[in-house]
Write a structure and sequence with these properties.
heterodimer, A: 188 residues, mainly beta, seven-stranded antiparallel sheet, six-stranded antiparallel barrel, 40% strand, globular, B: 314 residues, six-stranded antiparallel sheet, 22 strands
Amino acid sequence: MSWERELQELAARLRAITVEVATGGTSAGSGVIWDGNGLVLTNAHVATRPDPIVRLADGRTLPARVVLRDPQRDLAALDVGVRGLPAATIGDERALRPGELVLAMGNPLGVPGALAVGIVHGGPARGWRGTRWIRADIRLAPGNSGGPLADAQGNIVGLNAMVVGGLGYAVPSGVVTRFLRGEGSRAA
Amino acid sequence: MTAAAPRSPAGGLAGLSNDLADAVEQAARSVVAVHARRRIPSSGVAWRPGVIVAASHALARDEDITVTLPDGHTVTATLAGRDETTDLAVLRVDAPSLPPAERADPTALRVGHFVLAVGRPGPNVTASMGVVSAVGGEWRTWQGGRIDRFVRLDLNIYDGFSGGALIEAGGRVLGINTSGLARATALTIPATTVDRVADQLLSHGRVQRGYLGLASQPVRLPEALRAALQLESGIGLVVVNVEPDGPADRAGVLLGDVIIAVDGTPVRDPADVLAALGPDRVGKPLTARVLRGGQPVAVTITVGRRPQAQPRRR
């Protein structure tokens, strides 16, 4: 089946752009290489210390610096100081339709580079202060936080953040973009 | 209503993804939200013009029921009836723009078939994906309801799942999903069963069920008695209650009688007696072989009609 082969190739591409984030010597979650300039995105609840270590798919570990952090949107941007790493292709989460396939990559329960496949559950969930999350019918576990949520074409539509009522909740990539531009942050 | 997105030229995985989203969109046109309890709505499926099927356990009340349609309008619904034994309820609505669901044949389902559960626990549609986990033949729920086919699902149950539609890749409905028939288990009531129960609920307001007016529980026969009567089974059902003036009472059944066979078939559990009391038995004779004072006696009971349950007001 051609789609099975595609799924395997897509999983490999996602693996290359997914990192493990450790703080204080302990694995804290996952992250996504967001661009070719060494920018790695993860959740604020993963990057709880200023000097995390990032482990790449090829095994290299790099010291990182937290350059931006927003606990409200649960986002943190790290700089690993290395250019030219394989980076995410960012997608538009607003085009997601209920039922379409999504893929998650991360380190659930300490297993590195694990793939989960599910579907978009429905429309986005809205929290207080305008936060919103993509909801996916997908099996995530602790360790998936900060990792990529991709559509069937491999575009990153969100960052996996938490599990609520059995559903995987992800911070939409549009929110990440505004976070990186310094837009929309609210005083705590 | 938006048209289905065009098929991606890439085919393959993106094409599969598109097909799944199209299937949900197609089915969603017939899936509604049912407001009949304090917490979040449950789902319902437009089954026939003006008729919606929902999960009985998710409807906490019989009155003040409203339904939210796919177009966002909310309309009042009247409960035509419930069948708690199959966890189905049927509602009537005035909603000419609501199309009945397109159906697929549930007898073609096999283990491993890719399926989606589509619900509407609010204004918007939701879906989860999985496979058919197990299939089997006709089975009886713990309350004695007859379901034509056992269909167990490996997919996540979420809020609003019950009363929603099980669909195949083309968006056609195979049955109604429920988590109310077995604890924490996603099951589907196949479309054939839904039709049968809906017919009864729409014509009679309930599923007519045969009724004997007795309660029983399993009891082990003394070995000497079993051997003397040459019974294969050492289990009988001792009658612990006889409803005054009910069918069993009028046939002369006594407290303490031990039922050992119904219509020639040995019984070991009250469910075995229930199994002989389908809608087609109302008014017909039922032969019970009982032990009375250690002696076998044949009793013929004219099966009555089960009295209606009290309506709920909550």
